[in-house]
Amino acid sequence: MKLSGHTKPFAVIGHPIGHTLSPIMHNASMQEIGFDGIYLALDVHPDQIMEVLPAMAKMGFAGVNLTVPHKEIAYRGLEKLDESAELLGAANTVQFTEAGMIGHNTDGYGFLMALEEAFGKRVAGGAVFVLGCGGAGRAVALMAAKDGARSLVLADIDADRVRRLKDEILGLAPSVEVVPALCDCEKADLCRACDLVVQASPIGMKKDDPSLLPPEAFRAGQRVFDLIYMYPETAILTTAREAGAQIANGLGMLLHQGARAFEIWTGVKPSVPAMRKALETAVYGK
């Protein structure tokens, strides 16, 4: 990689940020297509993010991704929001323009593209079980409703969070059946009845984290998708696979949301094969 006074800087900002693989995939793509840029990872405290973003614009940054816990903060703090950010109530991509900063959300796009790639289908007409209804789970549930899910089971320990998300879903897609799952005693049966299971909690980010659902929650014919991407297979994916379900981790979602963000920033198509190879090498060692 050759750097010069013309090199365009990009970054992902989070707190913490050490787990991110975004620099690996973006830098691989820029090198492959001959784009004069560099992509960095920056740790910024949530209290400072809305001061840092305008400063980055002044410094000449060409684009920024946001990860936990900055997506909702940026959504509330940015004056201009794309329809994608408005829909999901979070901004994971910031575009710097002459007219100011614009918040986008490419997570929903990445989620649907990853499902189609991994399983050959998305969510239309299906029953979806969402485990964890925080920022990521909320975005997944709303995107599934928008994509035509028949029903959604919302599993979480926070009743207020589930109630708020249920109201949002019904406001977006009134015909979707929404079922809260707050008690562990009912989650396994509700999960087993669903076509697609999405693990959207942070459990699994540590290698020794256990599966939040037992083997009887899964069955053959199910699709199980874990948003966590740092490992080839989390405990919940192993449990699901052993029960006969199809499984996929969040690497595809990371890939496709990142590719979409690069297009928003530059108007240039990245090298998705180069991004994929870099991610697979980092996670699978191949």
Helix fraction bin: 40-55%
Query: What would CATH call the class of the largest domain?
Result: Alpha Beta
Low-pLDDT residue spans: none
User: What's the CATH architecture of the largest domain?
Assistant: 3-Layer(aba) Sandwich
N-to-C SSE string, H for helix and E for strand:
EHEHEHEHEEHEHEHEHEEHEHH
> Please, how many domains?
2
**Widest beta sheet: strand line-up:** 2-1-3-5-6-4
Q: What is the CATH superfamily classification of the largest domain?
A: NAD(P)-binding Rossmann-like Domain
CATH fold label of the largest domain: Rossmann fold
Tell me how many strands there are. Answer: 12
Supply Rg. 19 Å
Q: Summarize the biggest pleated sheet.
A: 6 strands, mixed
Computed structural class: alpha/beta
The share of residues in extended strands comes to 15-25%
Calculate the mean pLDDT score and round it: 96
The total count of helices amounts to 11
Overall geometry: globular
Amino-to-carboxy terminus distance:
22 Å
Q: Could you characterize what this model shows?
A:
By secondary structure, this protein is α/β, with parallel strands linked by helices. It has two domains: about 10-105 and about 250-285, Leucine Dehydrogenase, chain A, domain 1 (Rossmann fold), CATH 3.40.50; about 110-250, 3-Layer(aba) Sandwich (Rossmann fold), CATH 3.40.50.720. It has eleven helices and twelve strands. The protein has a six-stranded mixed sheet with strand order 2-1-3-5-6-4, with helices on both faces. A six-stranded parallel sheet has the order 9-8-7-10-11-12, sandwiched between helices. α1 links the parallel β1 and β2 (about 35-45). α5 (about 105-120) crosses α10, α6 packs parallel to α7 (about 160-170) and α10 (about 250-265) packs antiparallel against α11 (about 270-285). It is globular.
